[in-house]
């Protein structure tokens, strides 16, 4: 049976966790976390939470953030859920904001096919849903949405329409435009 907290990590175990995080050795970090969780018969999150330098207060999360280890931020569990899924589901808006700012990918679906936003919606976490809608909308706007015209395209169409009115007039016609009518191309 695994507990939610390790009995206690040794100074060397904490050093290993912080070292692998500090030098951006993701594979070694993950391996060490797995080994310590098994050794202490606790879950991996408990190992991460216990990995705090007693002198500086720096934790593995501090170093992950400093090194941009988004692989851990976007790491999926066996159900395919990321930390963002869990923070969203539980309505932790501050954590959701921190995760998205740290590079959490809000478009990852878990094995049930759900985005973090869906999990928040399903759990009736309106503030989180609203934040993710706004953040997702900004992301889509900055990247351009496939199948949708960009804002520049809309401006170009509006400019052409206002110059000669032909686009608006053509839109009212019931007949399709033939190649002859379209002109050279």
Automatic annotation (TrEMBL):
Q: Where are the ANK repeats?
A: 79-111
Annotated stretches, region: Disordered: 139-185
Q: Which UniProt keywords apply?
A: ANK repeat, Repeat
Gene3D superfamilies recorded for this chain?
A: Ankyrin repeat-containing domain
Q: Which InterPro entries match?
A: Ankyrin_rpt, Ankyrin_rpt-contain_sf
Quote any Pfam family the record assigns: Ank_2
* Identification of the protein by name: Uncharacterized protein
Which source organism? Cryoendolithus antarcticus
């Amino acid at each position: 049976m695994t507990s939610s907290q390790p009995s206690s990590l040794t100074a060397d175990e904490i050093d290993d966790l912080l070292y692998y995080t500090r030098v951006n050795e993701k594979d070694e970090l993950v391996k060490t976390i797995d080994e310590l969780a098994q050794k202490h018969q606790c879950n991996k999150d408990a190992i991460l939470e216990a990995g705090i330098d007693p002198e500086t207060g720096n934790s593995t999360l501090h170093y992950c953030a400093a090194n941009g280890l988004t692989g851990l931020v976007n790491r999926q569990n066996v159900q395919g859920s990321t930390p963002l899924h869990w923070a969203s589901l539980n309505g932790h808006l501050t954590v959701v904001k921190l995760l998205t700012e740290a590079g959490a990918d809000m478009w990852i679906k878990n094995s049930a096919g759900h985005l973090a936003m869906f999990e928040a919606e399903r759990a009736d976490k309106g503030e989180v849903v609203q934040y993710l809608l706004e953040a997702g909308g900004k992301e889509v706007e900055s990247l351009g949405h496939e199948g949708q015209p960009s804002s520049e395209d809309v401006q170009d169409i509006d400019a052409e329409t206002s110059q000669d009115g032909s686009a608006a007039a053509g839109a009212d016609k019931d007949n399709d435009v033939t190649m002859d009518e379209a002109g050279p191309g």
